[in-house]
Task: structure prediction
Amino acid sequence: MRLIFAAALAWTLTATSAWALPSEAEEGLSAHDIKAVEEGEVVVHLRDTRESTLKDVRCVGIVKALPARIWSVLVDYEAYGKIFPRILKSEVRAKDGDSEDHYTLLDYPWPLQDRWTVNRITHDESRYAINWHRIEGSVKEVVGSWKLIPDGDRTVVIYKVRLDPGIPLVPVWAIDWGTKQVAPDIIRSIRRQVK
Result:
């Protein structure tokens, strides 16, 4: 009987640990989400805000590379047009220590006009964290962050953004659908870049 109990306990611990992410990465994720992330999916959560057309978006995915390698991709702003398919142009406008101003021209689907933004970005390489917010542009509001969490020989990547493109008369369902289609590609683009 002890042997059966020990075997069952060992199997349970092994099965559970196979889906265990670092605790910081698990924030807000269900057991189903954790399993999906471990299986290679990018999990996207949308949270309503006070404005019906505005959502807080949180994407979580695993990239099979060390944080330092992913960091080098994330801070190469001049290459964003090659890394991320929906960015038409990207350039650094100003730098001041760990902060910089970054211009981005975003590709919006027809019949919408492309939008642009200048974001103020701050870097904390010791924590593998990047934060940004809009300071000007045709995009009404952008606030976001990257967080890289080491997990052995891989990294849990957390991308958060609140974006209001400033486009009137777009139904909420269309914004939700579009976000769920586009958001996972952001982490998938990083995966492709680090290979």
